[in-house]
Every structure is written in C-alpha cells, then in structure tokens.
Write a structure and sequence with these properties.
alpha/beta, single chain, Aspartate Aminotransferase, domain 1, 17 strands, globular, 392 residues, four-stranded mixed β-sheet, binds pyridoxal-5'-phosphate, Aspartate Aminotransferase, domain 2, seven-stranded mixed β-sheet
C-alpha cells in the first residue's frame, strides 16, 4: 500500500530530533556531523539562537499578512540585499524553482516590453539543475527528470557548460538571455571557469542579452562571497537565490537590476506567501550573520581547509576518489565509477552526513558556521570511510 506521504524520495532511515550547530541527533541518541545542511540550506547551523529568536518574535506579532499590504520585514530584507549586491530591486518567493521561474519571466517580459516579441529563448547548460517545475525542468533539460512529464516547456536551448564557443553558436535572433549556475550543484559541484563567466558577460553585452545566475545553491555566502558569480568580477542582470537565505525557513528571491525589475509591474507576477513577514524575519536574521565583518572571508578560509584536506584524501585513496573540486564550503569528491553510493553509506556509518550529486560526486556543504575543528573531524571520518571502502 502506498505510504500516506507520497514516495517521491528514497529516504534514509534516520529521524532527527534535535540539532545544534553542525550536529544533528536522532531520537535514539546517535550524533551526526552534518555536512549536508539539508542540501546547502541550514546555512547558519541548527538551533541558531539568533534566527530562532527573530522567527519567534515575529510569530508573536503577525505570522502572515499579505502582499496586498506593506510588509516592513520584506522591505528591509530587500534593501539589505540591494545594498550588498548588484541588484536594484528584489522579488520574494518561497523556493528555488520559483525564484528561477521569476528570473525566466523577468527576462522574457523585459524583451517583450522592448517590442522584441520573438525574443523569448534562453540559453541554458548541460548538467544544470533549476528545480522541479515544468519550466525549470525544461531549462535544465535533464532527460531523466523530464521523462513522462511532456510536453516540454518551449524556449530553452542547451549547450555544454564552460564552452563559450557553443554559447556563441547557439545565439539566434530569438535569444533573450543566458541562465546558469556559477557552481553547478546537483550536476556534481562543477564550478564555472571564471574566464568563461567573463566571456559570457561580454557575449551578452555584444548581443544585447540578459545574463541571469541561478544562485539558489551556490549563493548566500556558500562559496565565501555573497554570490558565487562575484569571484569572476562580473555583474549579472538578474539572479535567483533561495536555499541558504532563510537558514532553513522557506524563502526564495529574485534580485534584478532596475532595467529588468521595472518590467514586473503590478499584475505581472506574484506569490501569496512570498515575502511573508516570518520568512523575511528569518532572512534578516541570516543576513545579520552572513554580512557581519569577516564572516564571508572566514567561509572562504574554511573552504580552503576542507578542499586541502580532501585533496590529501584523493592522493591517499586513488582507487576510491578520482578528484575533488568546488569553491568555498561547496566541495565535491568524485568517486571511482560505481562507488559513490557505497561511499555515502560508509560516511553515514561514520556519523557524517553528505549529499550525493551527479557525476558520482559526494557533496560536502556544511553550515557556514562550521568550525575548523569540525572540518578536521569530518576529514577524519571521511578517511575512515574511504579506508573501509578501499578494503572492500
Ligand atoms: C535546489 C535548487 C533549485 C530548486 O530549489 P527548490 O527550493 O527545491 O525549488 C534550483 N536551482 C538550484 C541551483 C538548486 O540547487
């Protein structure tokens, strides 16, 4: 008989009852070092007092009002995101897929408003992940995820990642924009070459295209900058973010420059829950932590420690690990063909949570507040798991 909870996930037999910082504890008292963060989402750790206090204070005032009225918490969060980024204006939603949909809509509408009604196609990349809605599935073009959900939403042209020539060739008079992750997450922690990103900016400028980043996973400080594209020094036109923004509370956002944002006039887009006072209280509390002086530099430094440790393990276990790659606290370990599931189970047995990604990669995305000692402890556990897998 089908479970009451629809079986859309293969779930591990773990129930977490309590969390503190980088640690999660099961009902039967087992402690896990959480280097998965609920897929890069628990950005400021579990049981974060500052976030909990901000949410509970808001709950006691008004949990939900409506976008029919002014929401000061949303106005404040938007202003802070604008001040900290390239953007002039922010739209709030509730998830990553929804933020990507908003980014797609804003690009198409800007072209349409300019009288270029035929310019509605967006160039996207192989290995991308943009969420599970019909448009974002088509944008990412993963055949497996699309299977049985046709007809495919029109308007996306896919090319290989990190291949500027392929992008150039894919541009047609119908192209309005380019959309990509600065570090592909689900696709296997694949960072874009910084020169590729600079080349994309140049191509976009030459052809009058909009450049949009899906920063749902790699954004909100994950790589040691507020947004991962910042490593390339370029400025996008629009970006989508979500996962880490609420520290675990559901919230997503579309950040845009004025020349794009001005096209989403009243009636063009919306969301009942988007920018809800409680979600924005969570977002503001998370920003208090991320934007504190030195915090993001600390993330970059801890990312280097994790990366250096993983590189040593690749050298020590060449039969188990092929390579490591990533940026900041978004690191992947590519396992030998057919061993990534075995490795993930071995890590769980050592009390370390990770997340599988494409391309046989195991993803390590700890809360950004992780300590150096906890990174060292994680490396000890990864080493122990690798030794077991190597002996099998
Ligand atoms: C997780 C993810 C999404 C989808 O986010 P949801 O909140 O699950 O809808 C979109 N893009 C990227 C890069 C992601 O990692």
């Amino acid at each position: 008989m089908i479970p009451a909870l629809m079986p859309t996930y293969n779930r591990a037999e773990l129930v977490f009852e309590h969390g503190e910082g980088v640690w999660l504890q099961t009902a039967d008292g087992r402690r896990f070092l959480d280097f998965g963060s609920g897929i890069a989402t628990s950005s400021v750790g579990h049981g974060n007092r500052h976030v909990i206090e901000a949410i509970t204070a808001q709950l006691g005032k008004v949990l939900h009002s409506s976008n029919l009225y002014r929401i000061p918490q949303a106005e404040r969060l938007a202003k802070r995101l604008v001040d900290a980024s390239f953007a002039d204006s922010v739209f709030f939603c509730n998830s990553g897929a929804e933020a990507d949909e908003g980014m797609i809509k804003i690009m198409r509408r800007a072209a349409w408003d300019a009288g270029q009604h035929e310019r509605n196609r967006i160039i996207t990349f192989e290995g991308a992940f943009h969420g599970r809605t019909l448009a974002t599935l088509s944008a990412a073009g993963n055949a497996h995820y699309l299977e049985g959900f046709g007809p495919k939403a029109e308007g996306f042209d896919q090319v290989p990642y990190n291949d500027l020539e392929a992008v150039r060739k894919a541009i047609t008079p119908q192209t309005c924009g380019i959309m990509l992750e600065a570090v592909q997450g689900e696709g296997g922690i694949r960072p874009a070459d910084l020169d590729f990103l600079r080349g994309l900016r140049q191509l976009a400028d030459e052809h009058g295209l909009m450049l949009g980043f899906d920063e749902v996973q790699c954004g909100m400080g994950r790589t040691g900058k507020l947004f991962a594209f910042e490593w390339s020094g370029i400025t996008p036109d629009v970006c989508a973010t979500a996962k880490g923004l609420g520290g675990g509370f559901p919230i997503g956002a579309v950040l845009a420059r004025e020349n794009l944002a001005k096209h989403l006039v009243p009636g063009t887009h919306g969301s009942t829950f988007g920018g809800n006072p409680t979600a924005c209280a969570a977002g503001n509390a998370v920003l208090d932590i991320l934007l504190a002086p030195g915090f993001l530099d600390g993330v970059a430094h801890k990312g280097e420690l994790l990366s250096a440790g993983l590189q040593k393990l690749v050298a020590e276990f060449p039969k188990v690990f092929l390579l490591t790659r990533g940026r900041g606290l978004m690191q992947g370990l590519k396992c030998a063909t057919g061993t990534s599931m075995q490795m993930q189970r071995a890590l769980e047995a050592e009390g370390l949570l990770s997340v599988a990604a494409g391309d046989e990669v195991i993803r390590f995305v700890p809360p950004l507040v992780v300590g150096e000692a906890e990174i060292a402890e994680a490396l000890v556990r990864i080493r122990a798991a690798a030794a077991k897998v190597a002996a099998q």
